[in-house]
Amino acid sequence: MISVAIENKRIGETQVLGPIALEIAAGETLAVVGPSGVGKTTLLRILAGLDRDFTGRVDAPARRAMVFQEPALLPWRSALDNLTLVAGVNTATARAALGEVGLGGLADRFPGQMSLGQQRRLSLARAFAAAPEVLLMDEPFVSLDAALVDEMLALTERLLAARTIATVFVTHSMAEATRLATRIVRLKGHPAMLDPSPA
Amino acid sequence: MGRANRLSRLRPGALSVKWAGDRSGALPVTAISIAAMVAGWWVLALLNGDPSVLPGPGVVLPLAWHELTQGDLIYHLAVTLRRVALAFLIAMSVGGAIGLLMGSSRGIDRWLDPWLIAFLNLPALVTIVLCYLWIGLNEAAAVTAVAINKIPTVVITIREGTRALDRQLTDVATVFRMSRRARLRHVIAPQLGPYIASAGRSGISLIWKIVLVVEFLGRSDGIGFKLHLYFQLFRVDMVLAYALSFVIVMLLIEALILRPWEARATRWRRP
What we know:
heterodimer, A: alpha/beta, Rossmann fold, 4-stranded antiparallel beta sheet, 10 strands, globular, B: mainly alpha, MetI-like fold, 0% strand, disordered N terminus
């Protein structure tokens, strides 16, 4: 599904990513772990097509969705509009997606009128509503309290189980990785390379 | 929601005159304040005692009413408003486009910045005189002169807004492959909304003042032309009648069109 062959990635003069080769199959959830600042987000941005300034090749379907570290919602549009306008789905699909994350009653709320947990769920609903073939998640549970992380993990597990998506999930938490992922790789070193031995 | 906080700190209304209260409780205060201003004018006129130097509201208001119902106030008002509207549209669209370009490209910004500073510091009178000399004593020159005066400040505001666009939302639009149109309408325009509203409100208040000067110097109709005429005839009462009517119309436009629009553009920020 996704085939990655990065030779190198520089930011200014510094090489941040070394040679990286990855294959991710449909239905597989790959967790990329590693200390903060090692280049996990840089790798994910390359996979998302947001960063094209690298040497190498990424083959991935165009139907991609991403969950960002922050909810990254349109604050001037209602919850429902955030799904229809951004994910490009019809109202019925958007309502179903809201229901799936437990936001069925909040379709007309603006993001600013929702709690942080609700905003995170809306961000998750947006990604899944887009019916992606590839899902990229960049530390989606960072800065949440333990109870909320647990709730979000359970929700994500449920959503993933009902679909066949190639998922790449970046986190610094081994606990999150083992719970959600079918395969774990570690990013380490300068420039960062993959260490295939988990943990 | 750091983004929303950053936006709300740049108060769109900060540049222009505040004359109607934000809260409903401020409305009586506004009314009393206006009444006090009229009363002060009336007292001054009484103390002065010479209606040919300072006519009171009792002279000017009936005169304005007479010009409105039987004179040609409506005609000149319409001519002036047309010039205001044209200059406003040109300044907002040209200035907005240049501001977007300069805000999104460092290279273009570096090239155009000296021009911007030059035009920003060009006195309004110089632009007006040069436009009349080069284009001729006509409508095109009048509107162009006003627009040129306003474009630089629109550019600066919109450039600021473009630089402050949320990168993460741009990323969201890219990953979810939003169309160019949808991106402009739902991601970029709402972020620029407060900046456009700010440029528009300060723009209209600058433009209608410059339009009068332009008319004063080289047109044969419009409020500015009438002011010129009655200035030469030393008719203070007529000068006040025309000036006051126009001020009232512009304040109404601001209160009934621009303010509600600005409130709508920032509705999502309210909890």
